[in-house]
Every structure is written in structure tokens, then in C-alpha cells.
Amino acid sequence: MVGTGRRDRAHQRRSDRSPAVSSSSPNRTDRPLLRMVALARPRGTRFALGVLLGALTTGAGVGLLGVSAWLLATAATHPPLTALSVAVVATRALGVTRGVSRYLERLVTHDAAFRTLADVRVRVYERLARSEPIRRFRSGDLVSRLVNDTDSAQDLLLRGLTPPLVAVVAGGAVVAVCTALFAPGGLLLAAGLLLGGLALPLFAAALGRGPGRRQAAARGELSSALVDTLYGAPDLVAYGAMERAVRRVERADAELTRMARRDAAVLGLGSGASALVAGVTVWAVLLLGVAAVADGVLGAIPLAVLVLTALAAFEIVSPLPAVAARLGAIRSAGTRLFDVLDTEPAVRGADTERRLPDGAAALRVRGLRVRYGPEEPWALDGVDLDLAPGRRIAVLGPSGSGKSTLASVLFRFRDPDEGTVELGGADITDHPADEVRRIVSGVPQDPHIFASTLRENLRLARPDADDADLWAALERARLAEDVRTTMPDGLDTEVGAHGARLSGGMRRRLALTRALLAHPRVLVLDEPTTHLDPDTRDAVLDDLLAASEGYSTLLITHDLARLEQMDEIYVIVDGRVVQHGSHADLLAEKGWYRGAHGLPDPPRGGLRAVR
Ligand SMILES: Nc1ncnc2c1ncn2[C@@H]1O[C@H](COP(=O)(O)OP(=O)(O)OP(=O)(O)O)[C@@H](O)[C@H]1O
């Protein structure tokens, strides 16, 4: 037994390595938009360049209209051609500049946004891979978070970040030029731009906030309902519940459509109001300018330049109300995204490449305590367990006793909250999860069979395995004969979604073949015979045990079959080891094991005394 001091030190070491991000960091989740923008920080230079190029594009567009206005108005007075040559060249230059800079701006900002998006997707995926608590999300909803909500970051970075900054830079410059031409006109334009570029977007954002907030969740609901209905179709049909499930999908779809309609209405209102503000402002500038021309304060040519420049200036702010109307939806998508990213990983990051010691690996578990949340009861409460190289042990217990939790820890899907798990004397939490899984592998409770060929399903465990390796492993798992007799395409046989074309026993043997191909040193068989009929169960179990000959094997089971073949048995009840010994020892003593075999308590003095 390891002393408390050592356990505490191990726990302390792990706490030191705990990730900084936690689900309970309210100030971070409160500001999803800012946090989404912060995701783009590594590409900050590219985005800044994008803003400059965007400002250059809009500036060139506005300049083009202004210079064209000057050119047309001046040409009407029939000046010598040389007086127009600079303006003609400027028009061409501005036209070319606008096209080239628009192209470069799109290239730079899209490149930066897509790279950022790729980073975010990898981070979300890594968090999913490392987080067992992620199971609190439903699978369809998770897909929606990974795809749609991550895409919202792109929306924000491309449409919500660059255009407002461009509007500030280019809008400011245009107002300065117009004010220099005719101050009252310039100020009027500034007021119009503020109305169209600030007040209207704020109004659109307020209108879009409510529906937007619910949109991402509604998309997640639709996705979950669809996935549930598709995966559960056979059961839904069998229980006559398909119609209800389809109605749930229809309801989710109708809700999303209603929100999309409302979204479109807000967008339409925004762009209509934007066009109205632009029209009224340009008319007002024109009327003010005409009066000024009549008063002799302003020339006719500057008036033409002023009015067309004002008209062009609204192109800068016209996309902003639509972006603002989307902010609510983007914010809620961001909240959902950070919900995933902030989930405390069940496995701490492996900051080393350290390999576990080579050679036979003894498994040593001391004082292992695990729970699924600070308020949850302990799923494992001080488990001690030893598996010497080449031995076979069984962990036996009733449903809910913590057996699968133990398997999760051994596969490094979860880390211990307290206590240590050592492989060959090395604490597994000091090593990357992949490295641990190189040593510990096996048959999980519900092995996933991919909708692919038998060969591809097997090579998942060892991509470089050739057909001879695959057949050898199939022989060892006693699946080769079945493949030869029932699968005419042999290793090229398509096994169907979730291995639908295989029997339950074949699926377990396939999972075992996969595990054997990985050449683990510790083989964990987690309830390998659940859902099998008794005959198949016994046959599969015999084959599994025969195939595991020579491996350090840990059989996790609630079943009493074949336990006499195990070297030792640990009985776990409510997360604690209540009995430990060989089959014969445990049958001889009073306790859970005898009861499970339907035997009465042994006579006073114990069976051993009698034997
Ligand atoms: N993801 C989870 N979140 C919260 N509690 C969990 C989770 N998984 C398991 N538990 C709880 O932990 C305890 C141990 O569960 P575990 O699945 O390890 O038991 P088990 O012995 O493998 O049961 P079974 O044989 O039914 O699979 C149970 O009380 C269970 O409710």
C-alpha cells in the first residue's frame, strides 16, 4: 500500500499540470465575441494587412467616383485635353488599384480566417478526444458545435472584424476630404455615415440578439434530433415511435426556419434602412451644395465631386447592419464553442514525449479514486490492484460498481483524481495518452466497427500490417475460419455500418483481432461478452482467453463465466475492492463472491478448514 504522503505528492504533481482553462471561468465565457476575435491573434498581422488593403479598396472606389465626377463636370466646360490628362490617368490607376487591392484583401483575410478556423477545429477536436466529460453533449449537437459554431468564427473574422475597421479608416478619410471641399456637406455626410454605420447596426444587433441567441441551440437541437432518429431508426420502427421522432425533427426544423425567416426580415430591414439613410443624406448634401453654389460659396465642379463621393461613401457602411444583425447568432455560437473548449479535460496534457519503459510491464494501482464531478460520489474509492507480467486477473462486480471507470483510467481516457497507476514502475499520467495506449490495449465494452472493409478495420490498429499479419491475428482470435467460410471477399468484405453484417460474436472477435495486432503488453477486456447469448458468450470467452495466453490480461466483467481460469479475482462493489483472491479462495470465504454463485455462507471456521 502506498503511503498517503506519496499519494498526495502524486496528486499535487498532477494538479500542477492541470490546464489553465476551466469550465468555471465566467469572465472568459461571458465574452464570446472578444474571445473569438482573440482566436485570430496568431494571424493578427495578416488581418491588419487585410484591413489596410480593405481601406485601400474602398478608398480607391470612392476616389474613383470622386475623380470621375470631377472629370465629367470639368469636361462639360470644354477645357484643353491636357487639363484632363491627370484625372484620366488617376481614374485608370484607381480602377486598377481597386481591383487588385480587392483581390489581395480577399486573399489575405480569407487565408487568415481559414487558417484560424483550422486551428480552432483542431483545438475543438483535440478537446473532444481528450475529454471524457464531453459525453454530456449529445452527438448531433457536438457535430453542430464542431461544424456550424466553428464556422461562425469565420463569419465574425471575415465580416464582423474587417469591414467595421475598414469603415472607420476609409469613412474617416472620405469625411475629411468632403469637409475640406465643403464643411457643412462633410459634416452632413459624417452624420449620415454615423447613422448608417453605427446607429443602424446597433439597432439591427438589438433586433437580432434574441433570435440569434436561440439559433445555434436550435441548430444543435435539429442536428441531435436527426442523428437520434437516423441511428435509432430500427428501434423507433420496432416500437412504433418513428412518427413521434419525425415530428420532433419537423418541430426542430420549423423552429429553425422561423428563426431564419426572422433573421432575413431583420437583414432586409437593415439593408432597406441603410439605402434610405444613404439616399436622404445624399439628397441633403446635394440640396445644401446647390444652395451653396447659388450663394457662390461652392463651385459647380466641387459640388459634383462632393455628391458622388458622398454616394460612394455609403458603400463603406452598407454591409454593417447585416453583420450586426448576425452578432447575436455569432455570440451564441461562440458561447457553445467555448463550452466545449473550456471543458476541463479528463486527461491532462502530455507535455513530454517520454516513453514508458520497454519490456514486461507490471500494472500497479494504488489508492485510485475517481469521480465524475466535484459533487458526484466516488466511482472508484481507493482501489489497489496488481497485475504481474503474464498473469490474468478479473475485476468482477455488479453494474455501477466502477469497472468501466477503471478501464477508462487504464486506457487513459480519464485521469485519477487521487492515487496512482503505474506501468513498469512509471506513473501513466507522466506519459502521453497515446504512449500509454501503446502498452495497454484491448476490447472496449462497445467496440466501434467502421463502415469499411474488414482489412481497413483491422489495419486501424497497425497500418503497416500485411495480409499475413492480419490472417495470423484472425487465427489467434479464432475469426479466420468464419471469415473463410462466410465472407467470399475475405479481407475485402464490407462489414457495414457499425459492423451490421457481422454477428455479435464476430464483432467481439474482430475487436480482439484489432487489439492483438497492436501488440499491447497489457490486454484489457472490458465486458467482452455483454449482449451475447450464453453459448456464444462461452465460445467467445474461451477464444479470448486462449488468444490472451502470454499477455498480462485484465478481464472486466459482471459475469461469473470462466472465472476459474483467472489467476486472481478482484471483487469491486461501490468503487471499493471488497474481496481479492483466486476463484477457490473466494468460494471458500464468506462474502459477495459466494453469494453471487448462489452459495450460502460457509460453515463456521470456513471451507478451507473443512477441505
Ligand atoms: N460519464 C459519467 N458521468 C457521471 N457518472 C458516471 C459516468 N460514468 C459512470 N458514472 C457513474 O460512476 C459509477 C461507476 O460506473 P461504471 O460505469 O464505472 O460502473 P460499471 O461497474 O462499469 O457498470 P456497468 O457494468 O453497468 O457498466 C456509477 O455510479 C455511474 O453512475
From TrEMBL:
PANTHER family: ATP-BINDING CASSETTE SUB-FAMILY B, ATP-BINDING CASSETTE SUB-FAMILY B MEMBER 6
Protein name according to UniProt: Thiol reductant ABC exporter subunit CydC
InterPro entries (alphabetical): AAA+_ATPase (IPR003593), ABC1_TM_dom (IPR011527), ABC1_TM_sf (IPR036640), ABC_CydC/D (IPR014223), ABC_transporter-like_ATP-bd (IPR003439), P-loop_NTPase (IPR027417), Type_1_exporter (IPR039421)
Domain ABC transmembrane type-1: 48-332
Alphabetical UniProt keywords: ATP-binding, Membrane, Nucleotide-binding, Transmembrane, Transmembrane helix
PROSITE patterns named among the record's database cross-references: ABC_TM1F, ABC_TRANSPORTER_2
Domain of life (superkingdom): Bacteria
Membrane topology note: Multi-pass membrane protein
Parts of the chain that traverse the membrane: 47-73, 79-97, 165-183, 189-207, 266-291, 297-317
GO BP annotation list: cell redox homeostasis; glutathione transmembrane transport
Annotated segments matching region Disordered: 1-29
One GO CC term, this protein: plasma membrane
Main location: membrane
Localization in the cell: Cell membrane
UniProt gene name: cydC
Biased composition (Low complexity): 18-27
Gene source species: Thermobifida halotolerans
Domain ABC transporter: 363-599
Molecular function GO terms recorded: ABC-type transporter activity; ATP binding; ATP hydrolysis activity; ATPase-coupled lipid transmembrane transporter activity
